[in-house]
Specification:
Shape: globular
Strand content: 15-25%
Structural class: alpha/beta
Helix content: 25-40%
Largest sheet: 6 strands, mixed
CATH architecture: 3-Layer(aba) Sandwich
CATH class: Alpha Beta
Strand order of the largest sheet: 1-8-9-7-4-6
Distance between the termini: 40 Å
Order of helices and strands: EEEHEHEEHEEHHEHHEE
Length: about 220
């Protein structure tokens, strides 16, 4: 496998992940770890990293809307720490440059074609990420590559990772995801949460009190 690319069909959620999606619910998985992080964050003399989460793609092109769908779900059901910012923009351009350079870490969520089986998840970093974006058939990904390249020239490129899924259909005009991609949404959410927490962000279910039942039902909400 190429350096800078991790592909997987099953997401192994690390034991340190405080909140994870299970089916159609978000659950607080590790309360002790969550409390430890909060105590540690109060003791830290340096501010937390500024994390930018981008949900890119075209929501009118079937699986092209998976990025927007993912960040909408994360924002709808989880309350994130102040250092996490979400941006959903299917027409990225150099106007995003200032926003990118203000961040310490960027997580891009999108559909990407690498020749893999539809529904396969990827984590792309480094040169592999840059080549995938630059060689993409989709203009918004090429523009994102250009924006990151300019930030790099200016010496202010943030650490960037893409959490992506192989699409089944990105040519049809449809606002619904294909069944193949729809079934992987919980895994895509888990992969995004893993990266958000790795970058220093934190999410908590909105629909529960910290001392109440530790679950958030995505279906009934």
């Amino acid at each position: 496998m190429a350096q800078g690319m991790i592909s997987y069909n099953e997401v192994r959620v690390p034991s340190t992940l405080a909140v994870r999606p299970i089916g159609h619910r978000f659950e607080i998985r590790n309360r002790r770890e969550l409390q430890r992080r909060r105590v540690a964050s109060h003791r830290m003399a340096v501010p937390p990293r500024r994390v930018l989460v981008l949900g890119t793609g075209n929501p009118l092109r079937t699986d092209g809307g998976v990025g927007a769908r993912t960040i909408e779900t994360l924002q709808a059901f989880l309350a994130f720490s102040d250092n996490v910012t979400f941006v959903g923009d299917r027409a990225l351009c150099l106007g995003l440059l200032d926003t990118l350079m203000e961040a310490d870490a960027v997580i891009v969520i999108d559909a990407v074609r690498t020749g893999g089986r539809p529904g396969t998840l990827h984590t792309l970093t480094g040169d592999r990420l840059q080549r995938t974006l630059t060689d993409s058939e989709f203009p918004h990904q090429v523009r994102l590559a250009d924006t990151l390249a300019v930030a790099d020239i200016l010496g202010r490129r943030p650490e960037t990772v893409m959490v992506a899924i192989e699409p089944e259909d990105m040519s049809s005009w449809n606002t619904q995801l294909t069944e193949t991609v729809e079934l992987r949404i919980p895994d895509l959410l888990a992969a995004a949460l893993i990266e958000i927490e790795r970058m220093g962000g934190e999410g908590m279910p909105k629909c529960v009190h910290p001392q109440a039942v530790l679950a958030c039902d995505l279906v009934s909400a």
